[in-house]
Every structure is written in structure tokens, then in C-alpha cells.
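Hey team,

Filing this mostly as a record. A colleague (T.K.) asked me to run one chain through the structure pipeline before their review meeting, and I want the input and output archived in the tracker in case anyone asks later how it was produced. No errors, nothing strange. Just documentation.

Input sequence:
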Amino acid sequence: MSLVCEAFHCRPSEAREELGTDPDRQALTILELRAYAETKRQHDAVKKAEDAPKGPMADLVREIEVDLWRERKARRG
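Output structure:
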């Protein structure tokens, strides 16, 4: 709940209500997308491999990057 409050500049009671009334939990989806975007930005800015971001979100960034590369390569034949 703290992350929701911080990200959306709201009180804990507002965050609790939002999380409790939104079955799709859009606030959490937005937080996840923001985390992905920040990790992708860090990944793209890396000059040396040892400086690359680490963790599950970094793994997802690399996995998507590889998938996109394979799709582009398959289209070229």
C-alpha cells in the first residue's frame, strides 16, 4: 500500500479503497509497467555488462528483447 501511496500521491485510506474496489488492480499494473520502463531505461543505458540491472524485471526486459530480435530476424527470412 505504501508504494501505491507514494506513486499516486494519495493517503493510505484512498489507496486501500482503490485496491479494494478495483478488481483488475489497475494501480498495481501501472506500478509494474513503471518498473518495467525504468528497468528498460537502465538496461538501454548500460555501457558495461557488469553494470546491467539485475533481478526479475531485468530478466523480463532481456527476455522480451530477445523475443523481439527473433521476430525481426524471422520476418527477414
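Quick notes for T.K.: The CA atoms of residues 63 and 69 lie 10 Å apart. Helices lie at 2-8, 12-21, 26-45, 56-76.
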